[in-house]
Amino acid sequence: MIAEAIREALPEWYESALLDAGVTPIGDPDIDMVSTPEDEGEPLSFKFEVGVRPVAKLGEYKGLEVGKEEKEVEGGDHRHRGRADPRGVSRGWSRSTAPPKRATRY
């Protein structure tokens, strides 16, 4: 009966411990029951171990200069007529490859 009461109360205790510690966990916790009471009035001890994201610390970045590498392309006309997609895929349509227009009814 004590084990059942512990299983039912454990999620609430876990949430309370996270709020008290100010921790945002990643994944599920590892739970270690340190001591389980045999009789009423005996202490219950347990540990929750959770993964957390590390705190990012920025170094000195202001005033840094970054060079721009120029690439040369050989042969032909390399002007792009459409809009470039960030993934490098062309979004432009030429007249011969444009999709047919669809009629819209209102």
Brief summary:
The protein is α+β, with helices and mostly antiparallel strands and 106 residues long. The protein contains one helix and two strands, in the order αββ.
N→C terminal distance? 68 Å
Strand content: 15-25%
Shape: elongated
Give, in order, the helices and strands: HEE
Report low-confidence residues grouped into runs of 5 or more.
none
Give helix % range: 10-25%
Instruction: Give the neighbour order of strands across the main sheet.
Output: 1-2
The count of DSSP E runs of length 2 or more, i.e. the number of strands, is 2
Any idea what the radius of gyration is? 31 Å
Please tally the helical runs, counting DSSP H or I stretches of 4 or more residues.
1
SS content category = alpha+beta
List the helices and strands and how they pair.
Elements: H1 2-21, E1 26-35, E2 45-51
Antiparallel strand pairs: 1-2
General description of the model:
The chain has a domain at 2-51. The protein has a two-stranded antiparallel ribbon with strand order 1-2. 19% of the residues lie in helices and 16% in strands. It is α+β, with helices and mostly antiparallel strands. The protein has one helix at 2-21; strands at 26-35, 45-51. The protein contains one helix and two strands, in the order αββ.
